[in-house]
């Protein structure tokens, strides 16, 4: 049952009262640590994932299959953010949903730590489900800590929270990656489980500092709706169980019976969701026009993430096979490359925040469209840069580690140009009816981009070697051309955006 927001139900540490965390509500410390440990477990496991999939001591799969699995996994995490928000809105409320999510993630990492292929894929599924549930709701609870959107501390609070994300992401490959690569793969996955266990424990202990609003189920289901939803869910589960049971017992099951349907879902769902919003008769003409403009940003973002997320798959596998992973003669684990982006984010994000304000005061801040176009051009440039180490490797030599660091640097600058702007424009252009859901729609751009990568790399479908010079150059050209297309049509898109800038 939803908690009531009476005066007596407000905890002493909610907005503006009691002890603080760097001047912010105490609950921010709880959410900061929860997200830091969850990102520690998530990014640590993700850094190991493609390397374990191809390693002789791991699952020893082909690079194409490993990339497809990695891409489907990442796409599912962002796809499941939509139902994750729905679970909180209709069933459990944000706080209980995050607690359940933490438990599911921990169990998933424990399953990954078991040395069997079956439990490994079960573990991947559990981590994806838990991450989707958590991602959709923990940011919402940060917002609950403040007295509405006009609270002067709100932006700074989210900045601190963002630091927690990147701190966990930075440390994870250094710890989990080192143990996984140098000691034992499954010990590394077990460390990820320990990280999530610590995050869950401190979340449960510190949840008393959260806002009472985080306990509320905003639009709870009636008993009849719950019964109907449960029935439908069980029917679809039974259909899937029977179908895959028949496929398995007849000896026809392969990994692609799961990978290809999930890849297609990752491509179809974003199209269906945006089309449904666009056709909603409750929207007025101005809102429909803004949704039409938003499609440009969505497609641009999908192209961006398609290339950007290969930093954890294509680039990582290239580094494993063809790079000289040493600094001053000291060899470091391949997974450490995954710490480059978060440390650069922490260093450069304040610079970009200052830069936009400085340019705005002089009337020279680039428009949202120009920032988006720049992000696409930069991610394309990163893959043009990738051609250099690829050429070195094709010549029979090991590419220097700094080539890869340079690629990650260019991609990080592109991310800071496009990603925060995308989050902002999503909130500005969202129709009133879909104000909360549109953030989930933004995440679907990641799902779409990674699903394209999965489709291309899967040997049973596209069979494309993503680390070959021809295809890398093609992707680079695609991103740059997309960036210029967005820029060239900026007047048309600006007109569709109405009063949003």
TrEMBL record:
Q: How does it sit in the membrane?
A: Multi-pass membrane protein
* Keyword Transport on entry: yes
Q: What InterPro entries is this protein classified in?
A: Dipep/tripep_permease, MFS_trans_sf, MFS_Transporters, POT_fam, PTR2_symporter_CS
Q: Any transmembrane segments, and where?
A: 43-62, 68-88, 97-114, 120-138, 159-179, 185-205, 234-253, 259-279, 291-308, 336-357, 369-388, 400-418, 439-457, 469-489
Chief localization = membrane
The keyword Methyltransferase belongs to this UniProt entry's keyword annotation: no
Compartments, record wording: Cell membrane; Membrane
Keywords (alphabetical) are: Cell membrane, Membrane, Transmembrane, Transmembrane helix, Transport
Q: Which PANTHER family match?
A: PROTON-DEPENDENT OLIGOPEPTIDE FAMILY TRANSPORT PROTEIN, RESISTANCE PROTEIN MDTM, PUTATIVE-RELATED-RELATED
Family recorded in the similarity comment: Belongs to the major facilitator superfamily. Proton-dependent oligopeptide transporter (POT/PTR) (TC 2.A.17) family.
Instruction: Name the chain's protein.
Output: MFS transporter
Name the source organism. Streptomyces galbus
Top-level taxonomy: Bacteria, Bacillati, Actinomycetota, Actinomycetes, Kitasatosporales
């Amino acid at each position: 049952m939803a908690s009531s927001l009476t005066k007596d139900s407000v905890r002493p540490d909610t907005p503006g009262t009691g002890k603080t965390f760097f001047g912010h509500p105490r609950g921010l410390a709880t959410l900061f640590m929860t997200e830091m440990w969850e990102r520690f477990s998530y990014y640590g496991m993700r850094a190991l994932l493609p390397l374990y999939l191809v390693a002789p001591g791991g699952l020893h799969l082909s690079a194409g299959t490993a990339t497809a699995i990695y891409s489907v996994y990442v796409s599912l995490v962002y796809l499941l953010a939509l139902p994750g928000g729905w679970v909180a809105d209709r069933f459990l409320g944000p706080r209980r949903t995050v607690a359940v999510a933490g438990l599911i993630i921990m169990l998933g990492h424990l399953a990954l730590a078991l040395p069997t292929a079956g439990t490994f894929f079960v573990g991947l599924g559990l981590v994806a489900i838990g991450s989707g549930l958590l991602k959709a709701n923990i940011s919402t609870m940060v917002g609950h800590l403040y007295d509405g959107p006009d609270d002067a501390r709100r932006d700074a609070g989210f900045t601190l929270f963002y630091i927690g994300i990147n701190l966990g992401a930075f440390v994870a490959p250094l710890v989990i990656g080192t143990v996984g690569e140098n000691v034992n793969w499954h010990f590394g996955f077990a460390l990820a489980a320990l990280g999530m266990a610590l995050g869950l424990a401190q979340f449960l202990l510190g949840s008393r500092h959260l806002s009472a609003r985080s306990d509320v189920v905003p639009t709870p289901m009636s008993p009849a709706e719950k019964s109907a939803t449960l029935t439908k869910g069980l029917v679809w589960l039974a259909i899937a169980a029977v179908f895959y049971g028949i496929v398995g017992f007849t000896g026809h099951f392969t990994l692609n019976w799961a990978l290809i349907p999930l890849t297609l879902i990752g491509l179809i769902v974003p199209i269906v969701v945006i089309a449904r919003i666009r056709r909603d008769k409750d929207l007025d003409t101005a809102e429909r026009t803004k949704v039409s403009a938003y499609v440009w940003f969505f497609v641009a973002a999908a192209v961006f993430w398609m290339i950007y997320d290969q930093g954890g798959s294509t680039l990582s596998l290239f580094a494993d096979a063809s790079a000289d992973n040493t600094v001053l003669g000291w060899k470091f684990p391949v997974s450490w490359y995954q710490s480059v982006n978060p440390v650069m984010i922490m260093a450069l994000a304040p610079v970009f925040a200052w830069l936009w304000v400085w340019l705005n005061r002089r009337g020279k801040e680039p428009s949202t469209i120009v920032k988006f176009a720049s992000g696409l051009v930069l991610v394309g440039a990163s893959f043009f840069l990738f051609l250099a180490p690829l050429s070195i490797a094709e010549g029979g030599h090991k590419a220097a580690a700094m080539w890869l660091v340079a690629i990650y640097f260019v991609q990080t600058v592109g991310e800071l140009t496009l990603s925060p702007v995308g989050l902002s424009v999503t909130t500005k252009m969202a129709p009133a009816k879909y104000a909360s859901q549109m953030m989930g729609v933004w995440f679907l751009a990641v799902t779409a981009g990674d699903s394209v990568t999965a489709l291309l790399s899967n040997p049973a479908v596209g069979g494309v070697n993503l680390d070959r010079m021809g295809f890398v150059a093609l992707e680079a050209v695609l991103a740059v051309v997309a960036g210029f297309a967005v820029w060239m049509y900026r007047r048309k898109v600006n007109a569709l955006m109405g009063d949003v800038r």
